[in-house]
Amino acid sequence: MAKPNWFSWWKQWSNFQPKQREAEKAVDNYDYLFYGGSAGPGKSYFLRKYPIKFLVEFCWNKLKLRGVRAGLFCEDYPALHDRHLSRVPYEFPQELGTYKAQQHEFVLNDNLGGGVLAFRNLDDPSKYLSSEFALIEVDELTKNPKETFDFLRLRKRWPGIERTKFIGASNPGGIGHDWVKQFWIERNFPSEEIERDQFHFIKALPQDNRYLPKSYYTTLSAL
Questions:
Q1: How far apart are CA 223 and CA 217, in angstroms?
Q2: Helix (H) / strand (E) containing 78
Q3: What is the band of 172 on the pLDDT scale with cuts at 50, 70, 90?
Q4: What is the pLDDT of residue 1?
Q5: What is the number of other CB atoms lying within 10 angstroms of the CB of residue 122?
Q6: Are strands 97-100 and 105-108 parallel, antiparallel or unpaired?
Q7: d(CA 33, CA 169)
Q8: Which stretches of 54-203 are DSSP H helices?
Q9: What 3-state DSSP class applies to 42?
């Protein structure tokens, strides 16, 4: 893929809808984005595809950093497989990179900087004690306690990148519902939180996803 064609290729391949584009732009301005509020708006799709732009456009094209790592986390392996791993071989073409199934990693081609999107689970966050990621994403953030978020913040670092990023996406509910709501919705931070101005919330609704069938709304109305 020639560098001048990257932007047009990315736009076509990502195929983001307006609310996903809004989230994409918000990451440029905020270091802690929460994208959620309901089921069905395409949150997991966004989490899968956005890191490719971050790794290629920002880390490689702009900063000339090779081999930068981004991490996409779910609460356990079954969730990771069902939401993401089962889709990567079909969504990510060879012109972009190679999916390493055994390592659960997608590695970008050398001409795109060789960055890595690592798919990981949070059944035991201490496994990542020595890990570093320039971008950390958590799918269904509210399924995790605040201690997991605090731990991941310490892994959010990369040499040569001043502002590393965190993106959480989730439906309401779960053991982490209260602390996520407190931070991103109510903006009620503990006194020691010095990055409060970097927290940003984008509300996501089923209506944001034009690909949902009418039957999905029928099911929602029955709940």
A1: 10
A2: helix 77-80
A3: confident
A4: 58
A5: 23
A6: antiparallel
A7: 8
A8: 77-80, 88-91, 146-155, 177-180
A9: coil
pTM score: 0.92
Residue labelled with tokens 């932007």: 7
Return left, alpha or beta for 139; rule: phi > 0 is left, psi -120 to 50 is alpha, else beta.
beta
**Per DSSP, what are the bridge partners of residue 34?**
168, 201
Q: 158: which DSSP letter?
A: -
Kindly state the helix (H) or strand (E) to which residue 120 belongs, with its residue range.
strand 116-121
pLDDT at 218: 46
CA 210 to chain centre: 21
60 Cβ partners below 8 Å, 6+ apart?
66, 68, 108, 112, 113, 115
Q: How many residues does the chain have?
A: 223
Backbone φ and ψ of 137, nearest 5°: -120, 140
Facing residues of 72 across strands?
119, 137
C-beta neighbour count of 26 within 10 angstroms: 16
Tokens of 221: 């109305």
Query: Contact at 8 Å (CB) between 48 and 91?
Result: yes
Q: Strands 116-121 and 105-108: what pairing?
A: antiparallel
Q: What is the pLDDT of residues 119-148, one digit of tens each?
A: 999 999 999 999 999 999 999 999 999 999
Neighbour tally for 112: CB within 10 Å: 22
Torsion on CA atoms 215, 20, 77, 175, rounded to nearest 10: -80
